[in-house]
């Protein structure tokens, strides 16, 4: 049986922080849930098979999406309930669950995520495209991801082909009204400036059209 990854059983403090997506709330903990740079995004209960914590959160009928990163959980709601009504309940649940040492993941997602990103950068592509892909990954990791995490989400590299960069936006960024603007005015401009081969950036995980 795989060893379950649990957070340390210690006093936990949690505060809620609004995100650019009005339907998503970021719950920041004073303990580490995942390694830095690793995150998971669960759009539904079925996708959360590897996370007992996420499965428990989906038991709340208003929880529609769960995103877990290094020291925070971003929850996207599905109902018209106001966050003022939901935050106390979710904060109490998270605090009790983590303090009790409840399992966060069944299998550590870090290795799988690193392997997937490496495969995307070095798959069936030319050597030149591999080099360009690595430059893009480095820029996303060093300049873009920290800012996106501040807003309760994450960005991961998916592919590069003929000047088109495809990324995946997760957590609060998924379905966020401002995600398209951020993608085009911020991320695309940065990559075009730093990597001349880049012509356009498109994203998966965003419901708005570009």
TrEMBL record:
**SUPFAM superfamilies listed in its UniProt record:** Fe-S cluster assembly (FSCA) domain-like, Hypothetical protein SAV1430
The record ties this protein, via SMART domains, to: Nfu_N (SM00932)
The Scaffold protein Nfu/NifU N-terminal domain extends over 14-101
Pfam families recorded: Nfu_N, NifU
Q: Which family does it belong to?
A: Belongs to the NifU family.
> What is the designated name of this protein?
NifU family protein
